[in-house]
Write the structure tokens for this entry.
Amino acid sequence: MEKRDFLHITDFTKDEIFATLDLAKEIKESFKNRSDFKPFKDQTLAMIFAKPSARTRISFETGFFRLGGHALYLGPSDIDVGKREAVKDIARVVSRYNDMIMARLFDHKHIIELAEYSSVPVINGLTDFNHPCQIMADIFTVLEHKGNLDDLKIVYIGDGNNIVHSWLALAQRIPFKFVCACPPGYVPDENIVKAARDAGLSDIEISHDPKTAVKDADVVYTDVWASMGKKHEFDERVKRFKGFQVNDDLMSATGKSSSLFMHCLPAQRDVEVTDSVMESKNSIVFDEAENRMHMQNAIMLKIAGIR
């Protein structure tokens, strides 16, 4: 079988996305029932981390183990991607030892090069440009709570970052209304906004008014205002993002008591989101976090050609 990678959501067709959602549901049920499903028996997953992350490591390592395999953590002191050794050399060496590679990196071009030179499937665990596993888990979580994905309005509040880019990629495969409400100067990449609009499936809007943006929202989503690598901008961003906090007033502005709240975590409580919203009955943040593992397992099975 030809090697497949998962670097962008658009690497999957619409049919493949829905098949992966179904598979994630099946895997989640099998995990709850402790069924003996070990498709990765005697296989290894190399996990390359240029950026640390609790959820990404725990979900991939635990998930791959539960499916019968062994996951190997490789941090910056083990492999300093793009610095100590050429990316293409890392790709060719690591892929000779392992059956699959997951990488969480800063520079998006490094994940592209890693996949180009690797002889085994490569999964994007996050780059500064996108976060496809997260948004696949997010839409799976929405499906669980709503029962369908019809006529969705998803409103993202905050920085037009890698999370937004992956929502815009998903909008090129399945239809929904997506609004990114961000301060001027913090808009998402114009090329991916254009690609999402040109796909003609979804209604895409960039707004600078959070209260107007969230009207009729099915999902209100946020992320930290200063992602890793931009922490030095935090004080300035706090000033620029004034009015963009997801709080009880903003959730009420949706006009719908059923509006769900999502956050990819880690959250800075009472900064981009209040503690009261995080702990509200509409918050599905921890279902979302759990589903990272189930969705990532489904993605790995898909690109490995096992399911």
Notes: The two ends are 13 Å apart (CA to CA). The first strand starts at residue 44 and ends at 49. The mean pLDDT is 96. The chain has two domains: 9-131+290-303, 134-288.
